[in-house]
Amino acid sequence: MPALRSRSVWRLLILFVIALSTLLAVTSSRQPGQPLWHQIVAICGIAAMLVGVWLQHRHLAATFLVALGLSIFTFSGSIQYLGLAYGVVCWQTWVLAARLEHRRAAVLAGIIGASLLGQFLILLHPTAAYSGLIDYWKDAPAETFSTLGAMGAFTSVSIGFFWLLGNASRRRTQRLEDLRARAELAALTERGRIAREMHDIVAHSLTAVIAQADGGRFAAAQHPEKATEVLATISRESRKALAEMRSLLSILHEEDRSNDIAPGSEQIAALVKEAERNGLRVSFNQEGTSQQLSESKSLTLYRIVQECLTNAIKHAGAVEATLLIQWEDRITVTMDNAPGQGLGGLPDDFGRGLIGIRERARIHGGDARWGASKSYPGGWKVQAWLMG
What we know:
The chain has 388 residues and is an alpha+beta fold. 65% of the residues lie in helices and 10% in strands.
C-alpha cells in the first residue's frame, strides 16, 4: 500500500504507540498517597512533548512545545517516567545540533543545564512537595549527592554524544548540498561551453556558405561551370557543420556519445585553407616551436582562430589578412585584416563572437583585445593569448 511507504505515516504510528503505552503505564502505576493531579500533569507534559516531536520535522519552532512539555513533566515529579523524558531530551539534542545554524553553543549549554536542573528537582524530592525542598536538602544522605553527581556526569556525556551525532548529520547534509551545488554549477558551465561551441560552428559554417553563395551567384553568370564547384563547397560545409553539431549534442546523451576527436591546433592549417576557398587571402605564419596541448586547450586555440577568420570574412569579405601564432611561454594569436565591405544581409551579433574569444582565452589564464589594425589602415585587429 502506498500509505505504508510514507515516512509521515510510520512516524505517526510510532508516536501513537509510545503515547498509548505511556498513558497506560501512567494510569496503572499510581503510587499510594500520590495526588491524582500528578498523573494528570505528567500526561499533559508527555502529550505536549510527543506533539512537539511530531511537528518538529516540518517546523523547528515546535521545539518550544517540546520544551514546554518537558517543563510540565518535571513539575509533576513523576520519577517513574524519567527515562522517557530523557530520551526526548537526547532526541532534541540531535535535532537541534543537526538543524540549527546560529547560537549553537548557547543551545547546547541550555540543554545540559535544563536537564541537570530537572534531575535535581525530580530525584531529590520525588513527591514534588517543593515547599520542603530546603529541609530535604539539609537532611539528604551522602549517597544522594554521589547519585546526583553520577547522573549529572552521565547526562553531560550522553547529551554531548547526541550533539556530536547531530553535528555529523549536519556536516553530511552540508556535503550533499555542496555536491548538488557543484553539480548544478558544472551543468551551467557545460551549457555555456556548448552554447559557445554551437555559436562558433554555426557562425563559421553559415558565413562560409553565404560567402560561397554570393560569389557563386555572380560567377555563374559568366562561368556556369563554377556553379557546380560552388554548390559542392556549400554541400561540404553544410555536412561538416551538421557533423560537428551532432558530435557536440551527443554530449547531452552519454549512451550516444561518439569517440570522434575534437578539432584542435593540428587542424588550424586546414582551417586557413578553408577560409582561402571562401575568398579570404590569408598569410599564415607561426613563430616558435609548437607545443603539445591538452585537448581542451587545443580546442580553444582552434576555436579562437576559427572565430578570427569568420569575423574577417563576415565583416570584411574577400580581403587580405595575416594570421600569426606565436609559441612562447604563452600562446598568442594575432589576426589583422584589411578593410572591406563584408557580407551583406547578416544580422549584427553585437560582438558576441569576440566576447566568446575572450571567454575562451580567460578559461586558460589568458585574455583578448581588439581594435584598429596598424598593418592595414582602416582594417581590424584581434589578438588573443592563453597560457601554454
